[in-house]
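Dear all,

This email documents one entry for the complex benchmark we are building for the journal club exercise. For each entry we list the sequence lines for every component of the assembly. Then comes the predicted three-dimensional structure of the complex as a token string, followed by one or two observations. Please use this as the template for your own entries, and keep the labels exactly as they appear.
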Amino acid sequence: YDLTQPPSVSVSPGQTVSITCSGDKLGERFACWYQQKPGQSPVLVIYQDTKRPSGIPERFSGSNSGNTATLTISGTQAMDEADYYCQTWDSNTGVFGGGTKLTVL
Amino acid sequence: EVQLVQSGAEAKKPGESLRISCKGSGHSFNNYWISWVRQMPGKGLEWVGKIDLSDSKTHYSPSFQGHVTISADRSINTAYLQWRSVKASDIAIYYCARHSAPGFTYGPFDSWGQGTLVTVSS
């Protein structure tokens, strides 16, 4: 099972950006998103498609329908510059997308 | 506060055996699943496999099945990832990650270790 993400996305500070994750009938599974900054461990930012863990800013939101899960960051800040990975499960096996590098210009 | 503390960086020669560890603190992990995730230099995240600390049941990614072994010692809240014979292609940072609630075989991963760098060179 494969998850496909765009390799890179750029956004201006204060703007809204969406990062997509595509997979066959992905909307029928739960998707989550991880943020990873250089030299750091990943951090969970969205789980079960739309839920935010405690401590994650409200500007992070998620959706999942059809073949695409989407991570949206509203009012993007410089601190949001990072790699973002989507993840789901297939036949009891974890699957990550290839990752998207978000640049805040 | 939940913390996963991993063992330090390892430098091995091809063919040597290796075991790295992931110790949970701040909470009992006995009924949680722990996953291992690989990140090769400059690359993305890859799921290696997982273990249920309550009964040591494991499941592996087909890509890693037979090359690594995941085990645990629940008495000390510790999970392990081991190789019988490392190869140059095993060079990576390996993270452990806790699934978010007891019995949650399908994650998500709400706590991560700091990562263990494995290097292999003759």
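Observations: The CA atoms of residues 17 and 73 of chain A lie 5 Å apart. Chain A has no helices and nine strands.
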